[in-house]
Amino acid sequence: MTSPAPELTPAQRTEIELLARGKQEKSRAMRELGLSETPEAAHALLLRSGLWPESRTPYADRLHATTQPLELPVPEFPAEARLDLTHLDAFAIDDEGNRDPDDAVGIEALGGGLTRLWVHVADVAALVPAGSDLDTAARSRGATLYLPDQTVGMLPDALVERAGLGLHETSPALSVSLDLDESGNADAVDVQLTRVRVTRLSYTQAQARLDAAEKPFVSLLRLARASRLLRESEGALSIDLPEVRIKADEHTVTITPMPKPEMRFVVQECMTLAGWGAAIFADDNHVPLPFATQDYPTREVRGEGLSSQWARRKTLARTRFQPAPGPHHGMGLDLYVQVTSPMRRYLDLVVHQQLRSFLSGGEPMPGQLMASHIAQSGLNADATRQAERLSRRHHTLRLIAAQPEREWEGVVVDKRGPQATLLIPELAFDLPLSTPAPLGSVLKVRLSDVNLPALSARARPL
Question: Which regions form coiled coils (predicted)?
């Protein structure tokens, strides 16, 4: 039986909350109560005392990921020459409800067996030059923070409204073009400052247009398939694990599987091609960028089941970012940069700043200075991603705790002797389990003993 929570003075509560949020390392109040001076123990006491609701998540605070919106003035776009592409169709395709459309795709028939793929990206660097207050603030965040109960932008909402593609009749963009043959080989690549006219679509809407055999979407699919085959011939890996969308508030949690229409694959492949094309352009023109590189997988994993997908993901080395180009073996590319999310990822913004400086006749940031920006923003982005992961697990456990009698179907995706990792596909949630069941087994389980501060639960096979 759990002992009743002690009465806390306002001073004790403040001290214990600071410990739970990772804002101080010690707590005399916890020590006097005979409790461990850890953030998890403080969190448990605050829950037991009713001082924090179960919806409260302390992980962003602990990891020093800010949850305050960025409020800095946003300049107007500069008056400058741009290639007018408003006569070409372009589509910003994203999940329903997306609020920061920063990339769009389109095609242009060239003849001679070539098709020009256009990937347009919001020209954020026109509003956020290197060294500006907005740039420094974005670097300190590293990335947009996506939590189940809120989104905290890397950049101000006003900038997203000004620069987002398809939010106005026409939009300034930095556009990557690749002239591709039917096998996915690039005959030419280019990067230009443009003006585009963009139609926003959800993946569902875009899939409906593909199913109706509308020409631009059919052509995009053909190019994406050819590109994917070419990359696979160079060793690219494909990992298909369950993904879910988690939304939470003080009272409820909803978890819905992410649909995977073919147009999602198309857009992902186009974004990959844009990163490859931008990297080639920069390398040809000696523009330092934060190139993304990855070593060979540590071993080959065969099979397509969930346990194989899980094992394959574990073979991947961490992506490194460096001022000089190098191969990205997981993608099957000889060089690559992330270029399509400058509103949401700081290193993408750096790519834009460097390319825009070159295109405008300026002097790009030298590699040594850029390397320091890579390191600083990387630490901050890592904290953001970790806060997201822990917060998602927290709210998933809230949903599990609310349904103690529910049966869940899990798959044994890893095995170390009697100890296993069980993946619940419906929740994209994994937890340890002691079972004699072999790898790949499908088990019915109930989940109990939810411990929010420890982010744990117990699976009991039925």
Answer: none
What are 213-263's pLDDT values in tens digits?
999 999 999 999 999 999 999 999 989 999 999 999 999 999 999 988 999
Q: How many residues does the chain have?
A: 462
How many CB atoms neighbour CB 383 within 10 A?
A: 21
Q: Which two tokens stand for residue 197?
A: 């006219």
Q: How far apart are CA 148 and CA 151, in angstroms?
A: 8
Q: Cα–chain-centroid distance for residue 222?
A: 26
Q: What does R_g of the chain's alpha carbons equal in angstroms?
A: 24
CB atoms within 10 A of CB 10: 7
Site of tokens 């091609």: 273
Spatial CB neighbours of 267, under 8 Å, sequence gap ≥ 6: 93, 105, 203, 206
Please count the CA atoms within 13 angstroms of the CA of 402 that sit on its side-chain side: 13
Measured CA to CA, the distance from residue 200 to residue 267 in angstroms comes to 13
Q: Which pLDDT score is estimated for 3?
A: 67
d(CA 333, CA 301): 20
How far apart CA 288 and CA 367 sit, in angstroms, is 6
Residues of the chain with CATH 1.10.10.10: 10-52
Contact between residue 328 and residue 335 where contact means Cβ atoms under 8 Å apart: yes
Compute CA distances 445 → 333, 420, 442, 460, whole Å.
Answer: 42, 14, 10, 5
The pLDDT tens digits of the residues spanning 13-28 come to 999 999 999 999 999 9
Chain-wide mean pLDDT for the chain?
94
Percent of residues, the chain, with pLDDT higher than 90: 87
Global pTM value: 0.94
Share of the chain above pLDDT 70, in %: 99
Beta-bridge partner residues of 419: 416, 434
Section 407-434 average pLDDT: 96
Q: Where does CATH 2.40.50.140 sit in the chain?
A: 403-461
Digit-coded pLDDT (tens) for 295-348: 988 888 888 899 999 999 999 999 999 998 999 999 999 999 999 999 999 999
Q: Spelled out in words, what is the top-level CATH class assigned to the domain 403-461?
A: mainly beta
